[in-house]
Structures are given as C-alpha cells and as structure tokens.
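Workshop exercise sheet. Pairs work together: one partner reads the sequence aloud, the other fills in the structure field after running the prediction. Swap roles for the next sheet.
Pair: D.N. / O.F.
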Amino acid sequence: MTEQISTDPLHGITLEMILTELVEHYGWDKLGQIIDIRCFNSNPSIKSSLKFLRRTPWARTKVEELYLMYKIETSE
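Structure field:
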C-alpha cells in the first residue's frame, strides 16, 4: 500500500494550535486589529474564539490564512 502525502499545509495542525501560536506571537490586541472580529476584541479567550471560529467559516479562513502568512514570514 502506498502512503499518500498531503499537500495541505495545515494537515495535522489543529485550529487550537493555530490560534494559540497566533496569540503568543501577536497578542489579542494586535490579532483583533488584523482580524476585526468580536471574539478577539471583546473579552477574548481561546475557548470562546474556538467556538466562534468553528461555527464561522469565513472567520476561520482568515485565521488560517494569517497563520500561513506568519509561518512563511518566520521561516525566512
């Protein structure tokens, strides 16, 4: 059996891992400026943000795109 290699750059990375790393790097204030959503700007927490992002595809996409840009910038 041949092993398939995923071409998805987010393969194996959970939304919680992404959000935690972005918060550690940018902080809630800066993250809320970059992606203007209430769960980042009003009493932010990982738990409440994950709940919102899991229900809101457009917001999750923005977070994933920011994470990919951040990873590209930090790998250079």
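Discussion prompt: The two ends are 36 Å apart (CA to CA). What would you look at next?
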